[in-house]
Amino acid sequence: xxxxxxxxxxxxxxxxxxxxxxxxxxxxxxxxxxxxxxxxxxxxxxxxxxxxxxxxxxxxxxxxxxxxxxxxxxxxxxxxxxxxxxxxxxxxxxxxxxxxxxxxxxxxxxxxxxxxxx
Amino acid sequence: xxxxxxxxxxxxxxxxxxxxxxxxxxxxxxxxxxxxxxxxxxxxxxxxxxxxxxxxxxxxxxxxxxxxxxxxxxxxxxxxxxxxxxxxxxxxxxxxxxxxxxxxxxxxxxx
Lengths: 118, 111
Known about the structure:
The complex is a heterodimer. Chain A is mainly beta. Chain A is built from no helices and eleven strands. Chain A has strands spanning 4-6, 10-13, 19-25, 31-38, 42-49, 56-57, 64-70, 73-78, 87-94, 108-109, 113-117. In chain A, strands 2, 4, 5, 6, 9, 10 and 11 form a seven-stranded mixed beta sheet that branches. In chain A, strands 1-3-8-7 form a four-stranded antiparallel beta sheet, with no helix packed on it. By secondary structure, chain B is mostly beta strands. Chain B has strands at 4-7, 10-14, 19-25, 32-37, 44-49, 55-58, 61-65, 71-76, 85-92, 99-101, 105-110. In chain B, strands 2, 4, 5, 9, 10 and 11 form a six-stranded mixed beta sheet that branches. A five-stranded antiparallel beta sheet of chain B has the order 1-3-8-7-6, with no helix packed on it. In chain B, strand 9 (85-92) and strand 10 form a beta hairpin. Chain B is globular and about 45 Å long. Classes of the chains: A mainly beta, B mainly beta.
């Protein structure tokens, strides 16, 4: 089974701190994603990556950056944490489909990191 | 921007009753996926629909993709307490590997 591992289950940080959330997948997936999940808002895409050293902004990238130096690792960075970034952060990975998308096996999510910024 | 709305937001049913959640996109989707998230857990992939009008079944779960590929539904027959959780649809943005997730429907099943 594909495993997506997020480094911390719970994290408490102070306002203004630089925060690193780490995600590692073990199945050689090309695509990796960072979402945040908030009640009533569903999952919102922050950043995603299709390949090493490649990144693209999602729907809510402000206040975040990412790093993908190795294929298996995708890091989310909160440059200066603020209280409105208190949320559940979910990392996901997927394999690249073969053009017609009929071989798309869906995302595999990590267990999430619940970040509280105080 | 592209949006995927889901209704209802919450649903409480008695065990044994049926349940349906609906997913509507503002634009045509290449395909749609469904996920289930148990309380305290993370989303788990259930199924993918690709073709216009496609219907797929998984035991008591029936998934449909609309003819115009802008809407989808998940129907659960005779709910059980194990069905509790939040169900998300996710539509693929044409030409990308990016999915837009719906807001989710939280299902509670009363025994």
